[in-house]
Amino acid sequence: MTSLPKTLGELRRSNWTEEKYAQRSVRQEMRENLLCKMEKGDTLFAGVHGYDDSVVPQVINAILSKHHFILLGLRGQAKTRILRGLVNFMDPHVPAIAGCEIHDNPYAPICRSCRQRIASEGDATPITWLARSDRYVEKLATPDVTIADMIGDVDPIKAARTGTNLSDELTIHYGLLPRANRGIFGINELPDLSGKIQVGLFNIMQEGDIQIKGYPIRMALDVMLVFTANPEDYTARGKIITPLKDRIGSEIRTHYPATVGEGMTITAQESWLERENKKRVHMPQYVREVVEEIAFQARDDKRVDRRSGVSQRLPISTLENVMSNAEQRAIRSRDGAVVARVADIYAAIPSMTGKFELEYEGELKGADNIARELIRAAVGKIFTQYFTGANFQPVTQWFELGGELKIPANASNEEVMAQLKTIQGLFDHLSVLDVSPKDDAGIVTSAAEFILEGLWAHKRISRSEERGYFADVRRTPEPREPREQPGRGPRRQFN
Q1: What 3-state DSSP class applies to 365?
Q2: Alpha carbon of 287 to those of 66, 144, 219, 373: distances in Å?
Q3: How far is CA 234 from the centre of its chain?
Q4: Strand-pair partners of 71
Q5: Which domains does the chain show, CATH number per domain?
Q6: Residue 128 CA, distance from chain mean position
Q7: Which has more confidence, 451 or 170?
Q8: Mean pLDDT of 397-416
Q9: Could you report the per-residue pLDDT of 24-78, keeping only the tens digit for each?
Q10: Which of the residues 23, 368, 394, 470 could staple to 404 if both were Cys, CB 3.0 to 4.6 A apart?
């Protein structure tokens, strides 16, 4: 930065020629830099996963078309991260007139103060340099936002101090939008803006100018406008006015991860699992998969409000809570290693219940009960992926002959492992999870507990808080479909 020009005269004699940069708009700058990055094969949106074949190509098209655009999606779909990543398509730094509130271009100033300054100081006019981060302004839309907040207002205090008339352009206090001049202005939750504020964006998006207090002041701002919104609100009549929608160049839909693998990549990136712990920490792969599958189960559950969505923050927060509960158990039982178990997922229910909204049927059952059922369904699905075709008859038979297993909350890994060894055939299946009976006791007990929980999820054995795992010999088998005999219709069942 020290070698960059410091005055207007030095700028004119540098590579930043007036011919190239006087009329170069923000959207043209982003287009050029995006094309350059694509030719080099650079990563366009770091930390954004699962959008390579859907959202990212549409965002690229919008930038190449020099469009204002909006991202429509439910909560936790990386909309804000994408908006903030747009600054990477800007130049590392650009010149501006020092002290200007709206970052005026030295070659094409639009505010009266800067024009007067250049007229009086000429080539000695001081220049400052804007970094990428200086050129992104973000606002969360709320109903109490005013035109003064967004566009600006007349400042009587400034008028009194300078001795100028209130109708003078020099008395204007600029809002967020003018201060984003030569940059990107992002508005989150666009439909929450009141109608009159949405009207105030018309001229910016089409003609590129603003009006403050009705004064005939034309300021041709150079701003790229980007928005986010919930699809339900964006399409609701009265939430957003049609002329504003008409001026938004591209409407891009975001989505949740399409596969558990994509979700796990995001969760691993965002969750805090590298604890400053003296003990060895281990998070088994199947526990990660179960936690991620919980979110997928919730998104498909009819008792969960799909209009609200189930944020990707659910598996992130849950996985962190699972690790914390494993830490707590290891300290209390004085184990040498911290190994997460399926039981820790149930302990993490408080990190789930606030992440989804329930329909009426779900409200009757309660968020905690719904969360427990989601965990059981997730365990059952992941268990099936690992153990399709496996023979667990020796294990279930052990329980049917009267065997029971209850794992105390604060029992050490060695104590639990000693109990698990008594279950015939259980350790024969550990190899499927890349676990050996000779491994660390915490890893073995975690894998064995996952197997037992999977058998319970598939109703092969029973489980309760009082007895732990057991076989309910009184349980009646599930009813089967009546068989159809040759030459006869299906047999009827009478009560």
Answers
A1: helix
A2: 45, 44, 57, 16
A3: 19
A4: 228, 252
A5: 8-253 (3.40.50.300), 260-470 (no CATH)
A6: 35
A7: 451
A8: 90
A9: 999 999 999 999 999 999 999 999 999 999 999 999 999 999 999 999 999 999 9
A10: 470
